[in-house]
Amino acid sequence: MSATTFMQAKVGGLPKPFWALWGGTLVNRLGTVVSPFIGVYLTQGRGMSVAAAGLVMGVYGAGALLSQLVAGVLTDRIGRRATLTGGMLATAATMIALGYSTTLPALLTAMFLLGLVIDAYRPASNAMVADLISPHDRPRAYGLLFWAINLGYAVGMTAGGRLAEMGFTWLFWINAATSLVFAVLVWRAVPETRPESTARGTGFAIVLKDRLMVVFTLVVLGNALVYMQTVTMLPVAMTEAGLTTGQFGLAMALNGVLIVVVQPLVSDLIARLDWARTMALGIAVMSIGFGLTAFVTSTMGLALTIVVWTAGEIATAGIAGTVVAALAPAHLRGSYSGLFGFAWALAAVLAPLFGGALLEISPMALWFTVAGVGLVSAAALLTLGPAIRERAALNEF
User: Where is the Major facilitator superfamily (MFS) profile domain positioned along the sequence (predicted)?
Assistant: First the structure.
């Protein structure tokens, strides 16, 4: 296979507006330097106690829970481009306001608004991809967006740590600037893609009547509860197992490296496979990887489990968004994507709660339960497979 043919298989055939959306996503994630360090900013930059910082971050979580639902409805009612652009402009303004907030009421307000707007672009972005890309190419397109998010976030994490040493104000201005770039790029280079529809009504009252989508969302919630342990209980459990933070960070870097290197190489292959079976397999592999974490006592052991669950993560990368797009009527793609995003936001709240309680019992209690939740979700998805295939066939016409 020639280099040209190889590249065509990986990234060819996708329209220019998609690449503008992809580029904006990458720039935005490159500038995501505030969120990973917000706890440090509150305690060191603003001199808050850990308890007070926890309260402020809890308010951020409340905003995030509402974010996907609100943005999903707006995506269908006022349009994809307007919702994405408005969300990014609001994010830029809120970043600056948060950076200069000094009182507790101001910090609480800014953090709630930031949780509400920072990821409001996601339902609009997911709906745009579904509008722009044929069903056959959607797994590849969603996978490329996943790759851009991971690459940008990895670089942003590294840069954010350095910038924080120079002064926290830099973080807010850079994050605001990249949000603004994303907004301008989409507004100028991506046309409004919302389809005209004679169907009546938008919103979650309609989406929640779709039993298939509701059950699929529960599957996504199970998957998200498993994955969110990477940023909640996994660091705690590994330090309790005797690893230093440096050893943990080194092992976790493997996750980002594998995604950046491997995921683009397999995206076109994954796109040709059955969606439900592939996603179920990915969730199962991910769950087994986390289950094996119960036996980790060294950096090498952790690295091996990370290879396993990262393989599962790569397998599911572009599939979930593809399934949501296949289940949704065209005029409700934003609302369906919003419900999908809500499952992840809810998992971010629930994962540390149940994970912390289980870890207090024992590492095995935590990791075997996490594995069980994931395997049940994978089995449920296999059961849904025929219904997903039937709906996808109907919505293609």
Answer: 17-389
Q: What angle do CA 295, 222, 337 make, to 5 degrees?
A: 140
| Of the candidate ranges 18-22, 97-101, 156-160, 205-209, the one whose mean pLDDT is the lowest | 156-160
Structure tokens that stand for 209 in this block:
């009547």
The tokens describing 286, both together, are 């991910």
CA distances from 78 to 128, 193, 332 (A): 13, 11, 12
What pLDDT score was predicted for residue 12?
65
List Cβ neighbours of 77 (8 Å cut-off, separation of 6 or more). Answer: 202
In one-letter notation, the amino acid at residue 355 is G
The structure tokens listed for 167 are 């002064």
Residue ranges and CATH numbers for the domains of the chain are 14-136+148-192 (1.20.1250.20), 202-397 (1.20.1250.20)
Q: Is 392 helix (H, G, I), strand (E, B) or coil?
A: helix
Residues 293 and 235: their CA atoms lie apart, in Å, by 11
